[in-house]
Specification:
The complex is a heterotrimer of chains A (about 260), B (about 350) and C (about 260). Chain A has one domain: MetI-like fold (Orthogonal Bundle), CATH 1.10.3720. Helix content of chain A is about 75%, strand content about 0%. A two-stranded antiparallel ribbon of chain A has the order 1-2. In chain A, a hairpin with a 2-residue loop joins β1 and β2. In chain A, α1 crosses α13, α3 packs parallel to α7 and α12 runs antiparallel to α13. The two termini of chain A are about 35 Å apart. A six-stranded mixed beta sheet of chain B has the order 6-7-8-3-9-10, sandwiched between helices. Chain B has a five-stranded antiparallel beta sheet with strand order 13-12-11-14-19. In chain B, α2 crosses α3, α2 packs parallel to α4 and α3 crosses α4. Chain C is mostly helical and about 260 residues long. In chain C, α1 crosses α12 and α7 packs across α8. Classes of the chains: A mainly alpha (about 260), B alpha+beta (about 350), C mainly alpha (about 260). Chains in contact: A-B, A-C.
């Protein structure tokens, strides 16, 4: 009974992806790592690689900080209200990322709200460029993936044993100590799960860097698209694909280790 | 220094719009073991949480050791609280659970070790220090939670339904242990319970609460023998409670229930009269009833008798011969065992 | 009381960041002017109506609908038996199979799309539509398996045994007893799959050809050429569509526990 599903996925999915990845190790028909050496010798590629890593980590980190604050507040609401707010948190996940990202053009564009405010308040004579900056990509990614973090933190906070927080308070813990010594260790799994989802999501997002970063702020995904569509460079495409997959799996493995330690 | 450990003055506690406790006044003396007794929803747990600083009073004052702590947050009050769920930290070992509060105070490591070991010793858990809470039985978790609070040397130790999650045998054991512990350490203890037997057995003084108001306070003997209100009498086991509907002649009166009345040959000015089952005399007396049920309980027989004033519960020494169901018996509600009550406060 | 206020403020700010942008899109689409701005220059519904006039939007919407509905149905047809087998029988290598089936979620979509284009469409002469259909099915399959598994886990196994003892064949027991009981799980899987497929971009990116484009890809392309509010209007409409579906699903199924 599982066979159709497994065969379907393997044939349509694992096999072609496997071949694609192998392309990065072949230059001129020979198995070699030369492609990788060549790839990383180019400053642009290096910049894009580190930018992707940096943005992924940053989005995960900020999601975690904001996520903890809001998850904690949401969990402490009355059940009825909590359900409603929870619904609002997951709502964005159901809406087209194109629509979600497009909103940022309206907000950050030359004639967008932020620039209208800046010019209107006389903070600057000319509109400031926000689009096609790392900030714009960061904001877009954060908005796109933060719900995943909040959801997984909420579910692990709901599983906190009863009364451990007041117990810590009565034993003399400040709110910061309650967080670091009780909440954090007890919600580590939720944090790791959320962190993995957000980090890999940010690494592999295409729409956000494409719309908000353009060719000025390339990330690995948009770089891959360029390599294929502009320069037909399938060696680089295979390499980028491999890097992305390794980073995603790496994040999975490393974070799972941390969760269990 | 006064000898008052905790003083609650006009304390009003509310959840949003719902007032749980309107204007409570209570003094708890040093070294006292006080039970807050009452049915669920009577405000006893709320009161305890307020003493611990886990909820902010709407108005009123909480003094601990003569200092106003109403505005002091929970982590700076120096109050110990043993939660009903024990609230042990599942990610920390037994030792680390007990050390938790001491570490926050930046106590030197050697002192921590020494205090934690002493604390575990006190509750008989020394050999299980390295176990995680999940690997301990209910009774052991309870003790661990107790040790965790005790090592902080709190000015007062609060316990929320300390025996309710234990089985019957452990409950008896723990009762004795809590008493011993309190005598040994001389610590002021306040515990919350809905179980009158627990309160009677354990406490120096019982505070009986109903709807956020203190119904009666007193020693266990006081409360057991001399409840003042219908609620208090009902709560401490006066099973036969009747309304006095009027004094008829110079030396008689009528007690009534929903179903009927009985004439008694003495007078009372109380609004209600109550008898414990063991205070009712069976086999002789001016009244007659039909035995509706009888249960053998070792040293006694417990009868239910249908009378003109409804069902009456009576306990009779088991050495006396049994009366069968359906037989008519004579009985008496003697003046000597009648407890006069008020309807309410 | 101060604590309540702080907590409300935190929730409000977070939600504002997460949901606020949609309101902006909705209003930006209401503009009477011809370029994108907020607040809109005058109010009119013209851009909302204009969306329906664009031929390519109509075509790509139809394609996206087709992919989302048929791809998800197909994923359920092969996914439900797989979920059932994984949950009920101790098959050797169940973990491996789970991993294989889950792979399309883990591997970035753009890579899947490129691989399919290069090694299936080009050499095997698949049409772009077929490739898209297969890709969307593979993409939705993990969700179908996961959500259906979750609701199977919550179903007692003894009711099937009872059905068999009462004279059902194994297949009848499945169709008459199991299926009706996991109906809401399957429905939730369908909705989740539909939304995922409909909103999917990276997989379709390489697989779209001339005249065969999914709606999100079409929107991306349209955005590059023009700067008028029609994309905002379309985005808002799509957002309303998703919200409507999710709202109904939440009311009827308690959808959020399946996500």
């Amino acid at each position: 009974m599982v066979l159709p599903a497994a065969v379907f996925t393997a044939a349509l999915f694992l096999l072609p992806v496997g071949i694609l990845l192998s392309e990065g190790f072949k230059v001129g028909g020979e198995w070699t790592l030369a492609g990788y050496a060549d790839f990383f010798s180019k400053p642009l590629n290096r910049t894009v690689f580190f930018r992707t890593l940096k943005l992924g980590l940053l989005v995960a980190l900020v999601s975690a900080i904001v996520g903890y604050a809001s998850a904690f507040c949401i969990v402490n609401l009355e059940p009825k209200q909590r359900g409603r707010i929870f619904g609002l948190v997951i709502l964005p996940l159901m809406i087209s990322p194109v629509a979600r990202t497009y909103a940022w053009i309206v907000i950050l564009g030359r004639t967008g709200i932020v620039n209208d405010a800046i010019v209107g308040l006389g903070l600057s004579d000319t509109p400031i460029r926000f689009l096609f900056t790392e900030t714009a990509v960061f904001l877009g990614l954060l908005q796109l993936f933060m719900p995943l973090m909040i959801i997984s933190l909420i579910s692990s906070m709901e599983n906190l044993p009863k009364d451990v927080i007041p117990a810590a308070r009565v034993l003399g813990a400040s709110w910061l100590q309650v967080f670091t010594r009780v909440i954090l260790p007890l919600t580590r799994e939720g944090l790791v799960l959320g962190g993995t989802l957000v980090f890999t999501g940010a690494l592999t997002a295409y729409i956000t860097p494409a719309i908000l970063g353009g060719s000025k702020v390339l990330m690995l995904e948009t770089l891959l698209y360029q390599k294929v569509n502009v320069s037909n460079d399938f060696v680089s495409a295979g390499i980028i694909a491999t890097i992305l997959i390794v980073m995603c799996f790496g994040a999975n493995v490393v974070l799972r280790r941390i969760a269990k330690a | 220094m006064s000898d008052t450990a905790v003083s609650l003055q006009n304390l009003t506690l509310a959840y949003g719009e719902t007032v749980a406790v309107p204007s409570l006044n209570l003094d708890i003396h040093k070294g006292e073991l006080v039970a807050l007794l009452g049915p669920s929803g009577c405000g006893k747990t709320t009161t305890m949480r307020a003493i611990a600083g886990l909820m902010t009073p709407r108005s009123g004052t909480i003094m601990i050791d003569g200092v106003d702590v109403t505005k002091v947050s929970a982590n700076k009050r120096g109050v110990g609280l043993v939660f009903q769920s024990y609230a042990l930290f599942p990610h920390l070992s037994g030792f680390e659970n007990v050390a938790f509060g001491l570490r926050l105070k930046r106590t030197p490591a050697a002192v921590i070790t020494q205090k934690v070991e002493a604390g575990l010793e006190l509750v008989g858990l020394s050999h299980l220090a390295e176990r995680m809470p999940a690997e301990l039985s209910g009774g052991q978790q309870q003790r661990l939670s107790l040790a965790r609070s005790l090592v902080m040397e709190p000015k007062v130790l609060l316990l929320d339904e300390p025996l309710s999650n234990l089985d019957a045998r452990l409950r008896l054991e723990m009762r004795t242990e809590l008493q011993t512990l309190q005598r040994q350490t001389g610590i002021t203890m306040v515990f919350v319970t809905h179980d009158q037997a627990e309160a009677l057995a354990l406490a120096d003084r019982i505070v009986l609460m109903k709807d956020g108001v203190i119904e009666q306070t007193g020693t266990p003997e006081d409360l057991y023998n001399r409840p003042n209100t219908v609620f208090a009498a009902d709560f401490v086991g006066f099973e036969n409670i009747f309304k006095v509907s009027g004094n008829t002649a110079s030396n008689s009166m009528v007690i009534a229930s929903d179903t009927g009345e009985l004439n008694l040959n003495y007078r009372s000015d109380a609004s209600h009269l109550a008898w414990r089952p063991e205070g009712v005399i069976i086999g002789s007396g001016p009244h007659a009833g039909v035995v509706a049920g009888v249960a053998f309980a070792g040293n006694k027989r417990e009868y239910v008798i249908t009378t003109d004033a409804g069902k009456i519960r009576a306990d009779v020494d088991a050495s006396e011969s049994a009366v069968q169901i359906g037989e008519t018996v004579s009985f008496e509600l003697p003046e000597s065992s009648a407890r006069p009550l008020r309807e309410a406060l | 009381m101060g604590k309540t206020w702080a907590s409300r403020l935190i929730i409000f700010t977070t939600l504002l960041f997460l949901i606020g942008p949609f309101f902006i899109i909705i209003f930006a689409g209401l503009s009477a002017g011809s370029s994108l701005s907020f607040p809109p220059q005058g109010l009119s519904l013209k851009w909302y109506l204009a969306v329906f006039e664009v031929e390519s939007f109509r075509q790509s919407f139809t394609l996206s609908m087709f992919l989302a509905v048929c791809g998800t149905l197909c994923a359920l047809i092969i996914g439900v038996p797989a979920a059932y087998a994984i949950c009920r029988y101790k098959i050797p290598g169940a973990e491996t199979i789970k991993l294989i089936v889950a792979a399309p979620i883990i591997v970035p979509g753009i890579i899947v799309g490129l691989a399919l284009l290069r090694y299936l469409v080009v050499p095997l002469n698949f049409t772009v539509t077929l490739a898209l259909f297969l890709a969307h099915t593979a993409l939705v399959l993990p969700y179908a398996v996961r959500v259906v598994s979750a609701s199977l886990e919550n179903l007692r196994t003894d009711i099937e045994e009872a059905a068999v003892l009462l004279g059902c064949t194994r297949l009848q027991a499945f169709s008459k007893v199991v299926l009706p009981n996991i109906r809401s799980g399957i429905l939730a899987a369908f909705i989740l799959g539909f939304v995922t497929s409909f909103n999917q971009v990276p997989v379709s990116l390489f697989l779209s050809g001339p005249g065969v484009r999914t709606l999100p890809i079409d929107m991306l392309d349209y955005m590059e050429i023009t700067y008028d509010p029609s994309v905002a209007a379309l985005s808002a409409l799509l957002a309303f569509l998703s919200m409507g579906i999710v709202f109904i699903a939440e009311k009827t199924l308690g959808f959020s526990r399946y996500v």
